[in-house]
Design goal:
Largest sheet: 7 strands, mixed
Shape: globular
Strand content: 15-25%
Distance between the termini: 46 Å
Helix content: 25-40%
Order of helices and strands: EHEHEHEHHEHEHEEEEHEEHEHEHH
């Protein structure tokens, strides 16, 4: 096992697939010689050449269009959108062309594309760089949405995403790139897309989260345990497909739940998770399922983002509310 941070794990996954399959290509703004803004692709162009890892013009619509065109020709593009706020320029290509390709062609063509993008707050980045826009993709049929929370999952999920025959929107939290190191197997392995992970066992309440919020939830669970409250923490890993079975199994044990997301509260992933819980497990609930999320405002400027983001204290407060309902 090697010790890797999440950035290195994602890079290693792409390296594994570039070696394994000559149809895998990586492209985007500054991903070649520079290695990307965060150096995720550093060294890959030198190792695999400019025909496999190359820079594009500063045009997200062109990046998306190139990915769609290459995908239907048998390539497996890994297209980087430099920051999540820039996907608006590529939404037609991502959420209409790629996502509907199999349907539109009656199964003749597909879009085996990974759209990579960093997102997430807590790093004091500029406007449009840190928004959580996963909700836009979740509502789009035909595209999978993956958000890893740790290096092991990041590598396994990236390999699985590259091998998937449908488009995958792979979101990488900025605050996790270099946050910590963990053991990551060398060589190839996959983590199943659509399978959640119970990262902490508990019996009193279920906390459901993804991405950076998994770590925030674990911190909250540590605080709750000091008062004798045992919280179970579920890392969704992927939002589409959603592993509702793991969530329901946990709620049957704990009978209470909250859902944590960094994105604004209204119409987000948490709302969808709660709707499915109500459809499949409402008779096992002893309290309403609450949300802990960002406020329904534009993502704030860096000076005040720490007061905007969900915190362990807010999660603890929500848990106490469902426990005393």
């Amino acid at each position: 096992m090697a010790q890797m941070n999440m950035l290195e794990a994602i890079r290693d996954a792409m390296r594994v697939e570039l070696k394994r399959d000559e149809n895998v290509l990586i492209f985007g703004e500054d991903v070649g010689k520079v290695g990307g803004v965060f150096r995720v692709t550093e060294g890959l162009q030198e190792e695999f050449g400019e025909e496999r890892v190359f820079d594009t013009p500063l045009a997200e619509s062109a990046i998306g269009g190139l990915a769609v065109g290459m995908g239907i020709q048998g390539f497996r593009p890994v297209a980087e959108i430099q920051f999540v706020g820039f996907i608006y320029e590529a939404m037609d290509q991502m959420f209409i062309q790629a996502a509907r390709m199999r349907y539109r062609s009656g199964g003749r063509y597909n879009s085996p594309i990974v759209f990579r993008t960093p997102f997430g707050g807590g790093v004091k980045a500029a406007e449009l760089h840190t928004d959580s826009l996963e909700g836009l993709a979740v509502q789009t049929p035909g595209i999978k949405v993956v958000i890893p929370s740790n290096p092991y999952d990041a590598k396994g999920l990236m390999i699985a995403a590259i091998r998937d025959n449908d488009p995958v929107f792979f979101m990488e939290h900025l605050n996790l790139y270099r946050a910590f190191r963990a053991e990551v197997p060398e060589g190839e392995y996959t983590v199943e897309i659509g399978k959640a992970n119970v990262v902490r066992e508990g019996s009193d309440v279920t906390i459901i989260a993804y991405g950076m919020m998994v770590h925030t939830a674990v911190k909250a669970a540590d605080e709750l345990e000091k008062n004798g409250i045992k919280a179970e923490v579920i890392d969704l890993r992927s939002l589409v497909p959603l592993d509702i079975d793991t969530i329901v199994a946990s709620i049957k044990k704990t009978n209470r739940a909250i859902v944590v997301q960094e994105a604004q509260k209204t119409s987000g992933v948490a709302a969808e998770v709660i709707a499915q819980i109500n459809e499949k497990a409402i008779l096992h609930l002893e309290a309403p399922v609450l949300r802990v999320a960002g406020p329904d405002t534009v993502y704030p400027f860096a000076q005040i983002e720490d007061t905007w983001l969900p915190t362990p204290a807010r999660i603890v407060d929500a848990v106490n509310k469902v426990l005393t309902f």
